[in-house]
Design a protein that fits this description.
Strand order of the largest sheet: 1-2-3
Oligomer: single chain
Shape: globular
Number of helices: 6
CATH architecture: 3-Layer(aba) Sandwich
CATH superfamily: Glycogen Phosphorylase B
CATH class: Alpha Beta
Largest sheet: 3 strands, parallel
């Protein structure tokens, strides 16, 4: 979409209504799409590449696909989540909690304050 605000609204709506969010990357730094989905409390299936491996704790706050080219493993993970909505809900709840603990601005601010305090000692 050419309209960035319309695109953002569409992505937000899709993420809020999806049962599972998929980020099947071959390479990825920090996966913003992953964090947005986690923040919204959605179960996330993502490739175990780059920064995504740090964002998602496999089996706790999402599910990681070790080989992004393994279509059968990918299908099996999706089938598992769609067949077990309680599991998807639990992963989504844990994902939201992980974002609150790890990726909000206040956490970074507190870390900077701690660093400055230690340097001052």
């Amino acid at each position: 979409m050419d309209d960035l605000q319309e695109n953002a609204a569409m992505v937000n709506a899709l993420q809020r209504h999806a049962s599972v969010i998929v980020q099947k990357s071959l390479r990825e730094g920090f996966g913003l799409t992953v964090t947005e989905a986690m923040w919204k409390g959605r179960a996330v299936v993502a490739s175990a590449v780059g920064g995504i491996q740090d964002q998602i704790e496999h089996g706790v706050s999402g599910l990681l696909l070790r080989d992004p080219s393994d279509i059968e493993a990918f299908a099996a993970i999706l089938d598992q989540l769609l067949a077990r909505p309680a599991l998807a809900r639990r992963l989504g709840q844990n994902a939201c909690a992980r974002v609150k603990q790890q990726y909000l601005g206040l956490r970074s601010l507190a870390q900077y304050a701690d660093l400055i305090e230690r340097l001052d000692e």
